[in-house]
Design a protein that fits this description.
alpha+beta, Butyryl-Coa Dehydrogenase, subunit A, domain 1, Butyryl-CoA Dehydrogenase, subunit A, domain 2, Butyryl-CoA Dehydrogenase, subunit A, domain 3, eight-stranded mixed sheet, 12 helices, 48% helix, flavin adenine dinucleotide binding, acyl-CoA dehydrogenase activity, flavoprotein, AcylCo_DH-like_C, oxidoreductase
Length: 391
């Protein structure tokens, strides 16, 4: 377990401590399973089931529907700790956690549908992710129009298409999908349920984050009733919903800082205990190693401070959330890039042994790189900052 002084630095009180303890109980099992799922590229069904049974997956649901309505700050706290045990599990379930918080604050689902779905999350362990990326359009954040198409039919819609990067898909029976309306200049967000004509095609075989289950979702005339359409938007227009600034996406940098924290702790333990025959002291006493540790700590503390400060401000300033996009993007930029540097420094401290698959560092090194490819992308964050500076 991480060294308590730094690890628990952002726990503010008993409520934070209680929900953090819920995750901490699961970490030993998740850490033990992580290497196997990485090697096999298999999905950690048992981890997801443990999270369901613990009550973790319903924490972001509104209290009125049976959840705990955790804050963004608390979600960041939980995701960082969960990723300390297994980054793939944290990133996968983080989409569900973040979206439940987003749906709660942006309030664009039809009220009766949102209430009934929350009950499914609380009572039946339902999970959700929104699947917008496609082979021909790439990331939806770049503004591409989906090739997936929805066609009108009696009582609803028939949706046909393919979605890529469908993280958590092996555990999902509910998918939020964006599709272009056939012969119209608008798109819709549809709640797709597992049914005939919906299948997960196992395509995920990657360098890192190998156990997230980010396969392809294929829909062939999947039926969506009218009352399970979330919203329609004219192409080129912003959706008519409350703008929450995208705070929910902080589940992503929290995950990569958790991975970095695990690498940092491994390196510190190694430095304290490794004493080569050429030395009469452990390598932690060497100035060069202490310099690397100092740089590692600086990166970690700067990133955590940026992340938790942004989350707390988002929680406290409901009216100002729409204006926080650049600050939230910066928190992600700093956290993911610093996390990569932390893992790199940890490997330099450990040396050649860090490349061994018998140790966790090479997996953490591969996993942490994936942060560069999660939204928002570095170039988009920097472009936004430049535009603000030049106003």
């Amino acid at each position: 377990m991480a060294y308590v002084k730094e690890w628990d630095k952002y726990i503010r009180g008993e409520d934070d401590r209680r929900i953090a303890a819920l995750v901490d109980l699961l970490l030993p099992k998740f850490r033990e399973r992580a290497a196997r799922h990485d090697a096999e590229g298999s999905f950690p069904f048992e981890n997801i089931e443990d999270l369901r049974r613990s009550g973790f997956t319903k924490l972001a649901v509104p209290r009125e529907y049976g959840g705990e309505e955790i804050s963004l700050y608390q979600m960041v706290l939980l995701q960082e700790r969960l990723a300390y045990g297994d980054g793939s599990t944290a990133l996968a379930v983080g989409w569900h956690m973040g979206l439940m918080l987003h749906y709660r604050t942006a309030k664009f689902w039809p009220q009766r549908l949102f209430e009934s779905f929350c009950r499914e999350v609380v009572d039946g362990g339902a999970l959700v992710n929104q699947l917008f990326s496609e082979p021909s359009t790439g990331s939806p954040s770049r503004g591409g129009v989906p090739a997936t198409e929805a066609e009108r039919t009696d009582g609803g819609w028939l949706v046909t298409g393919r979605k890529t990067y469908s993280t958590l898909s092996p555990a999902l029976r509910h998918f939020v999908v964006k599709a272009k309306i056939k012969d119209e200049n608008r798109v819709g967000d549809f709640l797709i349920r597992a049914q005939q004509g919906v299948r997960v095609e196992e395509t995920w075989n990657t360098l890192g984050m190998r156990a997230t289950g980010s396969h392809d979702l294929v829909m062939e005339r999947a039926f969506v009733p009218d009352d399970e359409v979330l919203e329609f938007t004219e192409i080129g227009q912003k959706p008519q919903r409350l703008d929450d600034g995208g705070g929910w996406l902080l589940h992503i940098p929290a995950c990569y800082l958790g991975i970095a924290f695990a690498a940092r702790d491994f390196a510190l333990d190694f430095a304290r205990n490794y004493k080569p025959s050429s030395l009469n002291c452990p390598i932690a006493d060497l100035p060069t190693i202490r310099h690397q540790i100092g740089l590692m700590e600086a990166d970690l503390r700067v990133a955590r401070n940026q992340l938790y400060s942004a989350a707390q401000r988002w929680d406290n300033d409901e009216e100002g959330r729409a204006d926080m996009k650049s600050e939230l993007g910066l928190a992600k930029y700093v956290a993911t890039n610093n996390a990569i540097q932390i893992v790199d420094r940890a490997m330099r401290i450990v040396g050649g042994a860090s490349l061994s698959r018998a140790l966790p560092l090479e997996r953490l090194y591969r996993d942490v790189r994936a942060g560069l490819h999660n939204p928002p992308a570095d170039d988009a964050v920097l472009a936004d900052l430049a535009n603000q500076a030049l106003l």
